[in-house]
Design brief:
By secondary structure, the chain is α/β, with parallel strands linked by helices. It has 2 domains: about 15-30 and about 160-260, Periplasmic binding protein-like II (D-Maltodextrin-Binding Protein, domain 2, 3-Layer(aba) Sandwich), CATH 3.40.190; about 35-160 and about 260-274, Periplasmic binding protein-like II (D-Maltodextrin-Binding Protein, domain 2). Helix content is about 30%, strand content about 20%. A hairpin with a 5-residue loop joins strand 2 and strand 3 (about 95). Helix 1 (about 25-50) packs parallel to helix 3 (about 100-110). The longest helix has 27 residues, at about 25-50.
C-alpha cells in the first residue's frame, strides 16, 4: 500500500478485478469463481515452472540444506492455514488451498515428499530460523525487514489489498487513507498490513494506537467486525472476498498497490535456489 493512495475503488468493475463493489447476486458469484480458479490454475503452472528452472543453481560448500532435504526425502513446509483461498483446513481437516497445491507440485518436480505443518503467521520466520521447517508458504509478501532475515523465491502471485466492513456501516467505498481517520482497524499480527497501519495510520495520527487491533488469525478480526467492535478489517483481497458469503459483511475497496506472495527459506541457504 502506498501512503499517497492506499485504496483505489473503481465502482464500475468487480472486486475480483481489483476494484468495484461487492457481488450483489447469485449469478455474479457463480460467474466469479470459475474465472478466479482459471487464473489460479494459470498462475500455478507458471509458478512451478519458474521455481524449478533454477534447479541447477550452484550450492555453496558450507551449506548442506538441499543435501539434507534430498537425504531425508522430505521438504518440511511451514504454512499458516487460516487464510483461504491460499491456505486453510478443508472439510476433512486437511490443509488445502492454493499455496499447499503449489508446494506439492514443487515437491513432485524435486522428487521429494511434502510435509506441511500449520503455524501462527507471525511465527513463520522464527520457525525457519529455528530449523523447524525448510521453507514457508503462506501468501507472504516481501519487505525489506523480511528480506534481511530470509530469502524469497520468484514471485508466484500478484494480488491486491482488500477492506471489509459491515454492510450496515454506512461507509462509502474507501478510496483514500483519509477515510480511515478515527476508525477502529483490524489487521493480522505479523502481516504487512500491521506494519502499514502502524506506520501510516497511527504514526500520522489518523487513528490512535488504541484503535489499531491486531489479531493472530484474520477470522478473529472478522468476528470482531461482525460483532461491531471494529469498523474495518484490512487484508488481502482474495481472502476478503471469501468472507462475502456472509450478508453481514461488505467489500469496501481494493488496494491500488499490489502485494506479492512468495516462498521463503533461511537467508543464505542453497535451498533458496531450488
Amino acid at each position: 500500500m502506498s501512503q499517497e493512495d492506499l485504496l483505489q475503488n473503481n465502482q464500475n468493475t468487480s472486486p475480483e478485478g481489483g476494484g468495484g463493489m461487492e457481488p450483489e447476486d447469485g449469478n455474479k458469484k457463480k460467474s466469479f469463481w470459475p474465472w478466479v480458479l482459471g487464473i489460479f490454475a494459470v498462475v500455478l503452472i507458471g509458478a512451478v515452472v519458474l521455481l524449478v528452472l533454477s534447479l541447477q543453481a550452484p550450492q555453496t560448500a558450507e551449506d548442506d540444506s538441499w543435501e539434507r532435504v534430498k537425504l531425508a526425502g522430505v521438504l518440511r513446509v511451514a504454512t499458516s492455514a487460516d487464510y483461504p483461498p491460499f491456505s486453510y483446513y478443508n472439510n476433512d481437516f486437511v490443509i488445502d488451498g492454493f499455496d499447499p497445491a503449489l508446494i506439492r507440485e514443487v515437491g513432485k518436480k524435486l522428487g521429494v515428499q511434502i510435509e506441511i505443518t500449520d503455524y501462527a503467521f507471525e511465527s513463520l520466520y522464527a520457525v525457519l530460523q529455528n530449523d523447524q521447517a525448510d521453507v514457508a508458504v503462506a501468501a507472504i509478501s516481501a519487505s525489506p525487514e523480511r528480506e534481511a532475515v530470509v530469502d524469497f523465491s520468484n514471485i508466484y502471485f500478484i494480488g491486491h489489498d482488500g477492506v471489509l466492513a459491515r454492510a450496515d456501516s454506512g461507509l462509502a467505498p474507501i478510496t483514500n487513507i483519509g477515510q480511515l481517520a478515527g476508525l477502529a482497524v483490524g489487521v493480522q499480527r505479523g502481516s504487512v498490513y500491521e506494519k502499514w497501519a502502524q506506520d501510516t495510520l497511527v504514526s500520522s495520527n489518523l487513528i490512535p494506537q488504541e484503535k489499531l487491533y491486531v489479531y493472530v488469525k484474520p477470522e478473529q478480526a472478522v468476528a470482531d467486525l461482525k460483532a461491531n467492535r471494529l469498523n474495518v478489517v484490512i487484508l488481502d483481497n482474495q481472502p476478503a472476498i471469501q468472507y462475502l458469503s456472509d450478508p453481514i459483511l461488505s467489500w469496501q475497496g481494493s488496494g491500488s498497490t499490489s502485494s506479492a506472495s512468495l516462498l521463503l527459506s533461511q537467508r543464505g541457504q542453497a535451498l533458496s535456489n531450488r
